[in-house]
Design brief:
This protein has 475 residues and is an alpha/beta fold. The chain has helices at 16-24, 71-83, 100-110, 126-130, 154-164, 191-199, 245-260, 276-288, 309-320, 340-354, 360-373, 411-425, 445-449, 462-474, and strands spanning 5-10, 42-48, 51-57, 87-93, 116-121, 144-145, 179-185, 217-223, 226-232, 263-269, 291-297, 329-331, 386-393, 398-403, 433-437. The chain folds into 3 domains: 5-173, Rossmann fold; 179-354, Rossmann fold; 360-449, 2-Layer Sandwich (GMP Synthetase, Chain A, domain 3). 40% of the residues are buried.
Length: 475
C-alpha cells in the first residue's frame, strides 16, 4: 500500500517548514527566518484521524537570475517532488502579499495539472486574513488562511487534505517495514553523493561547499525487492564551531536521525582519516543503541595507496577505538560507485544482527563455555560468581548476566565476554550490550520475537505540536 503524497511548495521564507513540522507534530525540519535554509526534499509519514500520508518539505523557489549557486538544483528538487505528489500545498505569506516570484512560480505549477490548495500563511490576525483575497490572482481558487506558527486553522486544513487525497483500497496489504538507515559524517565527507548513488538520481543537492545539506532528509528506494529509507544528514560539527542557530538545529536533527534509524552509516574521508568528530558520532550511535557500518570514502583518490593501505588504516583505527573490531568497515568511492553494492549488503547484515533472537539455550550454553574457558577473576580478595545469562532485549540486543556482585566484575572481563559473544553469534555491527544484574528476569524467545516489529509511521497531529509549543513557551 503506497501512501498518498502531499508536497509543500512556495518561495523562500513563507513558512513551508513550519507547516511541515505542524503537520508532523514535531520539529523534523530546520526552521529559521533566514531564506534558503531548506534546500533538499524532506519526506516524513504523518497520520491524522486514521489517515496516513507522506508529507514533503521543499526548498524555496528562486528566480533564474538569482545569485544563489544552488538555485538550479533546488528548483529541480521542487519539481521532482511536485511531479510525484497527489496534492500540492502552494504557500504564500499573507503579510507580504502577492509577489512577482509568487506569480512566476504559480504559472509554472498550473502547467503541471496537479491538485493544488492555496495556503495563505502567517494569518494570526483578523486584519491579515482580510488581505488574503488578492491571492486569487494566482489561479488556485480561494486561499486557506492559516498560521503554521500558532496552529490557527491547521486542523481545518488537515481535514481538507485528507478529503482530497485518494483513499487506500480496503483490505490492501500493508507494505513491509523498510530498513531505515542514516548517512552520517563530517561536513563534505560525501554523504549526499552516496545518497544520489544509492537512489540512482539527483535527489539531494550535491556541492563542494561544506554544509550544503542543512536538514536531515528521508528518501525511499528498493534493492532486489527490499525496501529502504535512507536519511541524508547535515554534517555534525564540533560544538565550538556551532554558533549559528541553523547549524545548532541541524546538529539536533542529525542526532534525531540516529535515534530513529535502524542502522547508522558513518562516512569518513579516508584522505583525512578518523578524527575526533568521527569518534563523537560513534559515541552518539552507541548511546542510541543503533547498528553501525563504517565507510572509508574517496578511496579512489587516496594518495600513495598500496594493497596494504586498507589493512593499515583499519588497524590504526582499532588501536584508537577497539570496539571497531566488531563493525563492518568498507573502502568505497561514492563518486565513482566503487563497492556501493557492498554497502547495501552490510546494512542488511547489521540490521538483521540488531534484531536477532539468539536463542535462550544458545546463550546459556555459550555463556557456560566462556566461563569454563576463562574463569571470572576475583576482585579485592572477593570471589565473583556469574551464575547465568539470558538475552532480554532486541534492537539493541541486550544480554543480562546474573551476579550477586555486579560492581566487582572487572572491566577487562566484561570486554572478554563482549568479544566472545560477538564472535560466537557473529553480531558484526550490532550494538550489543551486557547488563550485570543481581536478579535475572528470564525471557522466552517468543517474547523477544514480538519486539522485532515496530511501526514505520509517525503518529502525529496538530495537538501534539501545540503541546510542544506550550512547553517551549514555558522554558
Amino acid at each position: 500500500m503506497k501512501l498518498p503524497i502531499v508536497c509543500i511548495i512556495g518561495r523562500p521564507n513563507v513558512g513551508k517548514s513550519s507547516l511541515f513540522n505542524r503537520i508532523l507534530g514535531r520539529r523534523a525540519a530546520v526552521v529559521s527566518d533566514r531564506d534558503g535554509v531548506t534546500r533538499d526534499r524532506h519526506y516524513q509519514n504523518a497520520r491524522f484521524k486514521g489517515h496516513e500520508f507522506t508529507v514533503v518539505d521543499t526548498g524555496g523557489f528562486l528566480p533564474d537570475d538569482t545569485i544563489d549557486v544552488l538555485a538550479d538544483s533546488v528548483r529541480t528538487q521542487i519539481f521532482n517532488a511536485v511531479n510525484e505528489s497527489d496534492l500540492v500545498l502552494f504557500m504564500v505569506d499573507v503579510r507580504v502579499g502577492i509577489t512577482k516570484l509568487d506569480q512566476q512560480f504559480a504559472r509554472l505549477i498550473r502547467k503541471l495539472d496537479k491538485k493544488v490548495i492555496l495556503v495563505a500563511n502567517k494569518s494570526e490576525n483578523g486584519g491579515d486574513r482580510q488581505e488574503s483575497y488578492e491571492f486569487l490572482k494566482l489561479g488556485f481558487g480561494q486561499p486557506r488562511t492559516i498560521s503554521a506558527l500558532t496552529g490557527y486553522a491547521c486542523l481545518s486544513l488537515l481535514d481538507e487534505i485528507i478529503a482530497v487525497l485518494p483513499t487506500p483500497v480496503r483490505g490492501e496489504r500493508r507494505e513491509e517495514r523498510p530498513i531505515k538507515f542514516a548517512i552520517l559524517g563530517r561536513p563534505n565527507a560525501g554523504k549526499s553523493t552516496l545518497l544520489n548513488r544509492l537512489l540512482n538520481e539527483e535527489r539531494a543537492v550535491v556541492s563542494d561547499i561544506p554544509g550544503t545539506t542543512r536538514d536531515s532528509i528521508d528518501c525511499d528506494f528498493v534493492v532486489d525487492g527490499k525496501k529502504f529509507v535512507v536519511t541524508d544528514t547535515a554534517g555534525l560539527r564540533k560544538k565550538a564551531k556551532v554558533d549559528d542557530e541553523v547549524e545548532i538545529f541541524s546538529n539536533m536533527r542529525t542526532l534525531e536521525s540516529i535515534r530513529r534509524s535502524d542502522v547508522s552509516v558513518l562516512m569518513v574521508d579516508c584522505t583525512r582519516g578518523l578524527e575526533i568528530q568521527d569518534f563523537r558520532i560513534i559515541t552518539e550511535i552507541r548511546k542510541a543503541g543503533k547498528g553501525l557500518v563504517l565507510l572509508l570514502n574517496k578511496w579512489d583518490i587516496l594518495p600513495n595507496k598500496t594493497e596494504k593501505s586498507f589493512d593499515h588504516m583499519v588497524k590504526e583505527m582499532m588501536e584508537r577505538e577497539p570496539m571497531l573490531e566488531y563493525v563492518p568497515i568498507l573502502s568505497i568511492s561514492a563518486k565513482e560507485g566503487q563497492r556501493i553494492n557492498r554497502v547495501i549488503q552490510a546494512i542488511q547484515t547489521v540490521y538483521a544482527n540488531c534484531r536477532r533472537v539468539l536463542g535462550r539455550d544458545n546463550v546459556a550454553q555459550a555463556f557456560a563455555k566462556f566461563i569454563e574457558e576463562n574463569p571470572v577473576p576475583s576482585q579485592n580478595a572477593r570471589t565473583v560468581q556469574l551464575t547465568r545469562a539470558c538475552q532480554i532485549m532486541v534492537e539493541p540486543p541486550v544480554i543480562a548476566i546474573e551476579t550477586r556482585t555486579p560492581d566487582l566484575v572487572a572491566e577487562s572481563y566484561k570486554r572478554y565476554l563482549m568479544k566472545k559473544f560477538f564472535e560466537e553469534f557473529q553480531l558484526q555491527g550490532a550494538p550489543l550490550r551486557l547488563n550485570f544484574d543481581m536478579k535475572l528476569t528470564l525471557r522466552k524467545d517468543e517474547e523477544l520475537e514480538q519486539f522485532t516489529e515496530s511501526s514505520n509511521s509517525v503518529l502525529a497531529g496538530v495537538d501534539t505540536q501545540r503541546h510542544l509549543d506550550r512547553k517551549n513557551r514555558e522554558r
